[in-house]
Structure formats: structure tokens, C-alpha cells
Amino acid sequence: MRRRFSKGVIAIIAIVIVLAVAITVGVFKLLDRVTPLAEQGEGCTVTTPAGSLDLDIVQAEVASTIAAVAARRKLPERAVVIAYATAIQESKLVNLPFGDRDSIGVFQQRPSQGWGKPAQLADPVYATGRFFSALVKVKNYLKLPLHKAAQEVQRSADGSAYAQHEDEGKILAAAFTGRVPKAVHCWFPAPKGKTPLPGADKAKRGLARALGSGTSLNAASQKYGWLVATWSVAHAQQFGLRRVRYSGQSWTSANGDDGWRADTEAPASRVEIS
Fold it and tell me: Any residues with CB less than 8 A from the CB of 69 and at least 6 apart, and which?
């Protein structure tokens, strides 16, 4: 014979189940909060008055490169915002080795449409340079709605899609151009083995490729200094940098998840990387 439960019993069982689920979710959230970022792998956090974003390190490398190329060309921040919104839509800020038809790279540019050779477009510095060269030729691009300016460059199937990333672009631009100090920090596991790290000299050469041959670690302005410091932190894992110091602040790979820390000996006139 089937056993039938009263409505009251069923209600009690339902309440118990709901409470059990709520407690389980709460425990997982609590564990997530107390787990140090360093134990969660690697990544970067961007924090500005306009909001915060989490990036993979490869995304941070691309973002810092875009800002550096814009600085070399002396472009306004609005141009950087347009570039970020475009790159987020096209590749999620990742240097993709493939795409629709023959599209490739951060901006998914097509060799068949005259953007360059595949090997060139696979270089974020070159690809960004080509994007900005096309953007500045768009009449009144600084006054156009973002999606219209981007679409004039990209000629994509749906140009309106770029608009959804404008707020993200503004956060990234404020941080990676150096306008907002100490806005970016990254963390990653310490390298294993005895293989020598590339070091500061290769990092300086990488920075020079993005900013131009006359690149200096001397800070002509605070904004430039923070652009260089931010680029260095974003590329710290790639080049094996252990410390970046500037303007009374320092970031170390050993405590990358703690962000920038006060450092009274960090110079205001020069970015130090090691």
C-alpha cells in the first residue's frame, strides 16, 4: 500500500531541502572568499573608479600593448577605448591564431583584405598599429558613437555589437594608459626549475617594440610612468620580472595578489624593473 504524506509533512520536507541547498551554497561562497588568490592560479585585476575587471594574464598583456602603441602615436584615450571595445568583441582580447575565414589576431584582421601578412597580424604590436592607422582616417571618429567608429574600421557583419563593450573599454583605458595609478596587478605561481628567466633586458626590448625605439624608463609624466609600470606588471610572467617600482609604490611577483604596496624608496622619476 502506498504511503501518503499530508500537506504539512510535504511542506516541512520542502523547507528542509531549501535550507540544505542554501547552506551548501553559503559554504561554497565562504570557502571561495577565504581561498587566497594566489591559490586560484594566475590572473590580473583592473580597478578604477569606474569599476573593476578580471583578466587572464594573456589578456592583460594584449591590453597593455594596445595602450602602449596608442601612447607611441600620441592618441587620445577615446581611441584606446574604441580599440578595446573592438578587441573584446573580436577576440576577447586574445591573440587568436585563427578566426572566421582567414581572420587572425586580436582584431581578427584578414590578410585577404589587405591588413597584412598572417605572421604580421599575429603580432599584437603590428595588428594594433594597423587598427589605429585605419581608425584615425575615419572622419570625426572621436565624436562618433563608439560602434560606428569601430565599424568604419572593421566592416563586420554586425557593427552594433561593439557598443556593448564600451564600459569595459573605458575601465581598461583608464588603467592601462596610466591615467589611474596602480590600477592593475597580476599574480602567478613562481617559476619552477633552474631555467634562467629572460630578465629585465628582454622586458625593456619588448616595451621598446610597443612604445618605440626611443623608449625610456624615465617618467616624463606620472601618466607615462604608470603606463610603463602597468605594462611591466602585465608582462612580468612572460619576462620573469620579480619587482616593479614606481612613485612610492612597488609590486612583487612573490606577493602579486596583494597588489601595489607603499614603498618609500620607489622613485618618482623612473620606473624600476628587475
Answer: 125, 128, 129, 132, 210, 211
d(C-alpha 98, C-alpha 269), whole Å: 42
Please write the tens of the pLDDT for every residue from 162-191: 999 999 999 999 999 999 999 999 999 987
Tens of pLDDT, residue by residue over 131-143, are 999 999 999 999 9
Q: What is the DSSP string of 158-227?
A: -GGGGGGGHHHHHHHHHHHTSSSTT-EEEE-PPPPSSPPP--HHHHHHHHHHHH-TT--SB-SSHHHHHH
- The whole-angstrom separation of Cα 147 and Cα 240 is 38
Cα separation, 121 vs 129, whole angstroms: 10
Q: Which three cell numbers, joined as nine digits, stand for 87? A: 578587441
Pairing of strands 243-246, 51-55: unpaired
Buried b (16+ CB within 10 A) or exposed e, 13-34: eeeeeeeeeeeeeeeeeeeeee
User: How far is CA 227 from its chain centroid?
Assistant: 13
